[in-house]
Automatic annotation (TrEMBL), chain A:
GO terms for cellular component: mitochondrial membrane; peroxisomal membrane. Belongs to the GPAT/DAPAT family. GO terms for molecular function: glycerol-3-phosphate O-acyltransferase activity; glycerone-phosphate O-acyltransferase activity. Pathway: Phospholipid metabolism. One of its GO terms (biological process) is triglyceride biosynthetic process. Residues 137-266 form the Phospholipid/glycerol acyltransferase domain. The gene is gnpat. The keyword Cytoplasm does not apply. Pfam families: Acyltransferase, GPAT_C. Its main location: membrane. Keywords: Acyltransferase, Membrane, Transferase. It is found in: Membrane. This is Glyceronephosphate O-acyltransferase. It comes from the Eukaryota.
UniProtKB/TrEMBL annotation, chain B:
The lineage of its organism: Eukaryota, Metazoa, Chordata, Craniata, Vertebrata. It catalyses: a long chain fatty alcohol + a 1-acylglycerone 3-phosphate = a 1-O-alkylglycerone 3-phosphate + a long-chain fatty acid + H(+); 1-hexadecanoylglycerone 3-phosphate + a long-chain fatty acid = a 1-acylglycerone 3-phosphate + hexadecanoate; hexadecan-1-ol + 1-hexadecanoylglycerone 3-phosphate = 1-O-hexadecylglycerone 3-phosphate + hexadecanoate + H(+). PROSITE patterns: FAD_PCMH (PS51387). Homodimer. The active site is at Y502. Pfam families: FAD-oxidase_C (PF02913), FAD_binding_4 (PF01565). Pathway: Glycerolipid metabolism; ether lipid biosynthesis; Lipid metabolism. Coiled coil: none annotated. The record marks R343 as: Important for enzyme activity. Its main location: membrane. Keywords: Acetylation, FAD, Flavoprotein, Lipid biosynthesis, Lipid metabolism, Membrane, Peroxisome, Phosphoprotein, Transferase, Transit peptide. It is found in: Peroxisome membrane. SUPFAM superfamilies: FAD-binding/transporter-associated domain-like, FAD-linked oxidases, C-terminal domain. This is Alkylglycerone-phosphate synthase.
Amino acid sequence: CGSLSKDPMLKKRDDFEDILEERRNSSDLKYALRCYTPVLYKGVTPCTSSMLKSMVLQSDQLHYVINQVSKETGKATDDIKEEASAILEEMAQCLQLSTVRFFAFTLSKAFKTLFRSICVNEDGIQRLQQAIQEHPVVLLPSHRSYMDFLLMSYILYTYDVALPVIAAGMDFMGMKFVGEMLRMSGAFFIRRSFGGDKLYWALFSEYVKTMLKNGFAPVEFFLEGTRSRTSKSLTPKLGLLNIVMDPFLKGEVFDVNVVPVSISYERVLEETLYARELLGIPKPKESTSGLFKARKILSEDYGSIHVYFGQPVSVRSLAQGKVNRCQFNLVPRHIPRRPSEDIASFVNDSAYRLVRAQEENMVLKPWVLVASLLLQYHHQNQAAGQKRGIALGELTAQAVWLRDLSRQYGAFLHWPDHIPPSEVVSSSLTLHRGLYVYTLKQHKELLSQAVILLSCASYRNQALHVFVRPALLALAIHTASSNQKQEVFNSFSFLRNMFSNEFILCPGATVQDFEEACYLLVKTGALQFTQQEVLVTERGHRTLAFLSTMLDPFLQGYQVKETLCNGCVMFCVQKGGCVHNSIQRSREHLRIGLKYMEVLSSDLQKNSLAALLRLGAVRKMKG
Amino acid sequence: MPKYTKPPSHLQEILKWNGWGYSDTRFLFNKKGQAEFTGKRYRLSGMIIPALQNWFEGTFGASVQHKSPAMPILTSSAVQPPTLNEAFVDELKSTGIPCSHDAEDRVFRGHGHCLHEVFALREGKVGRVPDIVVWPNCHNDVVKIVELACKHNVCLIPYGGGTSVSSALECPPEETRCIVSLDTSQMNRILWIDEKNLTAHVEAGIVGQELERLLNESGYCTGHEPDSMEFSSLGGWVATRASGMKKNIYGNIEDLVVHVKMVTPQGVIEKGCQCPRMSTGPDIHHFIMGSEGTLGVVTEVTMKIRPMPEYQKYGSVVFPNFEQGVACLREVAKQRCAPASIRLMDNEQFKFGHALKPQVSSIFTSFLDGLKKFYITKFKGFDPDRLCVATLLFEGDREKVLQHEKQVYDIAAKFGGLAAGEDNGQRGYMLTFVIAYLRDLGMDYYVIGESFETSVPWDRVLDICRNVKARIIQECKDKGVQFSPLSTCRVTQTYDAGACVYFYFAFNYRGLSDPVHVYEQVEHAAREEILANGGSLSHHHGVGKLRKEWMRETISDVGMGMLKSVKNYVDPKNIFGNRNLI
């Protein structure tokens, strides 16, 4: 990672402009029909989507794989070609300006009802414009909502930037009409899994590369692979990143610009849906009728959205000194090969860096801090067996303390400083009334209580990337057997390793993370270092308590998992089955007295199981 | 100090001491700001080149008002006094072989034509140079000199035409022994011509144009024409694995050489016959060719010769873009019908060539030019900022040439190529002979530059051209160059399995405190880019000391070991101590 400036307080960020403001003051129809003339990549030759398809089908790569498959299966090459052509038909986008205009119109209407504002950093757009002219561009937005990619295209249309082609999951194709609409607005569809299917992989990677290399359009996909249901960034998926970096590594383009985009929702449309899903209530299948049923959300207030287009990252500069590109010199480049070890680890490192770049520019609303405080307060109360609320004054005071702390840690906090803090806190409470009212009411019904707590947790999670490193250190100090620096580091390193499926912690960056955490805690006066020891200062106790409490639910989740696994090894038929079993088990445990509802989250369970598997604490068995 | 004798023929007297080529020949901007090419030696000599100033100022952001003149003469005090091995000098004198330790003679042989070498000379800066220059007259003289060098442990650096662009002639600064420059220029005779076998036995000090001139007198030629052939020597070609413009007909140096004689510290190495091909283990010629003066001195070479061609014709083809041009060259190579020379210049180089058009004398010619331009850009719709041009040279029987020409133009047409006349073609080739003079002009106005080359498989030609050019531009920007550089290339040779690509790169260095260092960093980066894109370390310039650092990855550890063990056997005391290559 190591992209951090020494002092996070000094991070420069651009200002935002609300793009809905103009929409509220002028005709949407005119806007949808206006002249759209984006600037394109310098070398681009105009090319239709059908030309793209034939370029893919005629590529050396595909010829090679078709012959290979034919040899392996005994099928005639013509049959395989036909198959390939059909797959490509199912996959390919067919971007049409008329559809884009349709969306521009309808989304304007919808956005205005749903959101107070959609704020975009215009400097970022300028940088993107520049980047698109120079090199092929890959857009990497964070993924929290179905809204994300429509929103992206909407913004790019608004600013006259080239519209992207977007990698979308095949599940959208289930929605008949909508699927085709999305295709015409630039989406192309990939099957969720195609493990050993050489032909599919070749088609897919060649299709993406062809679009990228020719500068046909910016390629957009989600590094996290799927929507994060917890508002925590997901560990990156590497398949597509591998594909878009390949043309650079093989010298087919001079460089590729990767642009991380951070989309922060004040309230995600899928808020409660996610919590239910995390609790094991299966997600409804994407269907057009489902979409219409969801329209009732139109009557609610979802606050504002902030979209931050980050600094374009040059793949060339990322790879500088990390990858020896000469490794492609000895075999023709169209022959598919497994990425070598250095490339695999380069892509992995880059992916983490990019997710962190997304995280860094996520806008945090005051509510995120309030939710974090309320959750901790709730759990303390619960432990003490009390059932009372918190005075607004006290909450405000704590929120102000946390505001200052998070700013010192470099959070991109949108706290309106011109408004008195008590008003800031109460107005954010109003927007999320649905959540905190129940939180305080202590609902009797276990499941709906869990839904609310998990929703709250998802807001707290938005701030996790700011606190996670110092929090791990706080926890390490707490659990280490002594104050010795080395002991603390060992304990930090153990915890970090354990949680590496849970949080975005760059592989191999333990020392950097430790130093960063130390730096922040020392800077804010919470810690002191002597020659050998780590000392918590007088005023540091409050900070450290807050930080380690923040990770408490996760810690308990992992502990529970461990105990459970000890009991249920026999049930581990397969991963899915195990998770299901554990949910059952957890529910039982809950009756015994579990402090944190979050332990019920399937995400936490999945991550903890993966971690335990990785650490060799449990083993997968077949049979 | 005793007086030494200098040899009678001394090319040095008519050449520049701090730049390229003949003293009487140079580009300059006259009082009207127009470019002029002085002297009488070239087709372009004595002509006004009206478009050059505009191109020069526009391309580099330079101005003819801002001069950066060179030091006019060498001050002897800038040259360190020679370290002489008295015993060696005494014995050498007793042999009667001419030698000198004049500062001018020593400085002249202490450099090649890399940018940093010429730049330093223009500033009057001189580093370590040879301590003494000797001019052997024949093979036996060389044998004597090498024996004496071994006996007295002095360092020998062979010197041919001095056109090296790989720092091969630079004296290693760490060398403490007396350094002797062994100048082969007096060994410039054709010893015999064998018309039955079509071979000529030639002394290795002969320079290219002299060799061709003498052979032409008997109706023959070697056909070996590297761009440097006016000054480079046969021995130098062998020592660097040179390549000639017309290699498609005549072959590269390794195809032309039948027999080589080289004097090494262990004695003379040569084959016992003049056979066209042998199966006798690894070819010992391949230890000699490309040895870059690290093993010995090449003294005599038997080369293939050919009857002079009956007919020569230039030609050119305009393509809508570089991609189409490369595709056409690839097809020509595939069909193995490449003319004597076929080169594809990119758009920038095409414009460069265009800027060198001399003033036209008749209105008719300029009208025709206008018409051609109109036809290509307006009627055919070629984008003047993308089109590129291939230059062609056909050679042979008149009838066959015409047939061949048609075949090539037919292929070109399939790739959208339009025949664009002989004149464009001829001017393209002229560019290669005057480019080095142009560099001197640039250096008079704060512009420095260089060319470098590589070879690359066909499937990577486009990628390497694009990426290396882009890398140069990016590095210049990153290194603080204030003006955008000239970064251009041409595909200059075709082979069955790939092509040779030549890059020109130059920039305006106003505002830089250490322009040469910046230049070297950019060139270094460009070479890394070439290697990362599957290009070779060198196609024909050689390695010298400039590209030594990449030898190991180029030929593997074992390869290095093999070369080193040969060096250790042949020259255990490192008498040939120029430290090139390994």
